[in-house]
Amino acid sequence: MEIKRKPAWLKINLPKGNGYKTVKNLTQGSNLHTICESGRCPNIAECWERETATFMILGNICTRACKFCDVKTGKPLPVDANEPMRVANSIKKLKLAHAVITSADRDDLDDKGAYIWAETIKKVKQLNSSLTLEVLIPDFDGISELIQQVIDTKPEVISHNLETVERLTPHIRSRAKYQLSLKVLKQIAQRGIVAKSGLMLGLGETKEEIIQTLDDMRKVGVSVVTIGQYLQPSKKNIPVQAYITPAEFSLYKKIALEKGFTHVESAPFVRSSYFSERHINLKLQSSHPEV
Question: How far is it, in rounded angstroms, from Cα 247 to Cα 267?
Fold first, then answer.
């Protein structure tokens, strides 16, 4: 069932201000991509005005076609060996204290993009010594050696999103598997890195399924979770099935905190990297049960 009218609490601010222009000019001038633009994030105005952005490496064409995502799908361009340094330089120019990096899926590459991932993190850290860094990684097909290449660079937070509940995963996510994503998160947490994941609501999940997903995250050691409203970015994407109220998001935050998550962002406009600097400012430790 498609819902045509958005509720009042889902009003989006239009881009404006010098901060927004600074980020846009820098990314365009450096030939860089952001998930903010490629994914049509509703928070782009707010975040760019704070001069923060989530850089997207390995191009802006994804080899997967998840039904919730508006990033282009197709045959990606060849890997750009100079991209890691361009990202590092851009972060330095913005004088960021905290940055987030993500990527398109690159199933066309033998290493799924792990080498460029590792090089980008290394270059960013070398050029920005006081920077704290969160990376939102793909599943690398669950190949532990590739995941470990990212872990070994020691970003402060490594995020990998479950996106939705287990029942809906085959319908919503392209190629990705629920249990495989839990395996990725478990490896991150076991290595002592803060493990983070995210959920979109409004895709047809039940309250019981949301709670079960939170339990599954905690079981593998996830300590930070984001919960936000799915919004259909284009007509080719799957329609919204339900709009979750702010009160319901507050309830899920309370439930998640009671389950032992160290930090929870839960509200309609929350996305994976929304105010991610808060996770660092709170000096999170990788608090998780035995896994």
Answer: 9
